[in-house]
Design a protein that fits this description.
Distance between the termini: 24 Å
Number of helices: 6
Order of helices and strands: HHHHHH
Oligomer: single chain
Number of domains: 2
Length: about 130
């Protein structure tokens, strides 16, 4: 699981569990010693997700809702476009296969494909440096 997916799952679990900010921070600190999920390493992320699951949180087939996925895509798109020149090619691909560049008009499945393309582009851009 990548970092952004882990953060999204943790925040979805927080919302579904109805945790206020202080209770959430206390929960994180109790399980990892850290008060912010942004500071977690991959092991700590899994520990917190397992702790949420122990309280009844279930990761659905698509744990990330459309709004969260769009935010992740926009953030990753920005990182990719800064790192290399693949942003224009990705935008063209988005239009070619989906006939739109408006992420709001895409289905969850289409958004997942776009996100995977961006992850590949980010990885390839990182390897070039």
């Amino acid at each position: 699981m990548n970092r952004n997916t882990g953060l999204a799952i943790v925040h979805i679990a927080k919302k579904e569990q109805g945790m206020g900010e202080e209770k959430y921070r206390g929960f994180l600190e109790e399980h990892t010693g850290k008060r912010s999920a942004a500071d977690f390493n991959p092991v700590e992320m899994r520990v917190v997700i397992k702790a949420f699951q122990a309280q009844g949180f279930k990761i659905k087939g698509s744990a990330i809702d459309k709004d969260v996925l769009i935010r992740l895509i926009k953030k990753l798109f920005h990182q990719v476009s800064r790192a290399n020149n693949e942003a224009l090619a990705l935008r063209r691909r988005l239009f070619k296969f989906n006939h739109t560049t408006d992420l709001e008009q895409l289905t969850i499945e289409q958004l997942k494909e776009v996100y995977e393309d961006l992850q590949r582009a980010a990885y390839q851009g990182a390897r070039q440096w």
